[in-house]
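Justification of resources, computational component.

The compute hours requested in this renewal are based largely on the per-chain cost of generating structure records like the one below. Each record pairs the submitted sequence with a full structure-token output. That output is archived, and it is also reused by downstream analysis tasks.
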Amino acid sequence: MPRQVTAFSNPLVKQARALREKKHRRAEGLFLAEGLRILTEAREAGVLPVILFFSDATHALVAALVEAVEAAGGEAIETTPDILHKISGKENPQTVIGVYRQLDTSLDRIDRAAAPLWIVAQALRDPGNLGTILRTGDAVGAGGLILIDDCVDPFSVESVRASMGALFTQSIATARWPDFVTWLRSAPAQLIGTSLRASVDYQEACYTAPAFILVGNEQAGLPAAYEEECDVLVKMPMHGKADSLNAAVATAVMAYEVINQWRAT
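The structure output for this chain reads:
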């Protein structure tokens, strides 16, 4: 039976609110996810929060979340919109907020045979881009996202929100570049990079599975040494005044080009 919490000073409320900061997420090994759609996507993917805050259990999907969380040994807490606002920091908070255990992001956990396509992002800084890339990966049937070097925290509130639930359907790993290269070259793989300095059009290259699409930092792009490691380096034609596409948009264009080639054959 869910218990009620109406005090701002409640320790669980304070703990959840603190998870908006990276240092507390790391210390606790927990992160926040907000919204009925995202939490339902997580439930359908087999991932449940350890603590569920909700303000209205009359909705069937909220009731299903409460039942699933309690059945799994988690805690469901009925609270007020004001406390949900305090936890989320949003003026119009969602009706449900979940506290989740952080996912294992070790590279060795990735099963590269699970999908023919993977996305790799190097020094990605924007949580909106990270979330959008996760959604793209889900849309194209990619196995997941491998974050290289110092990227934005995939478990930040902004990243989780931007992923719209794809955080729970895509595998996520983090690694330094040398470790990633060693892991990548331990089995057959095609590393595909995009660069303004490339001479091959992205629609003229031949892509083979398993393919790993490598996207660089939003401002600097890929370092030269990383480009040299790529098996295929391509560019996208820019017909207007802009000199490049947004990192997440470029990733989506490349991902669909790769799978469209495979669909054609």
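The CA atoms of residues 25 and 122 lie 22 Å apart. The chain has a mean pLDDT of 91.
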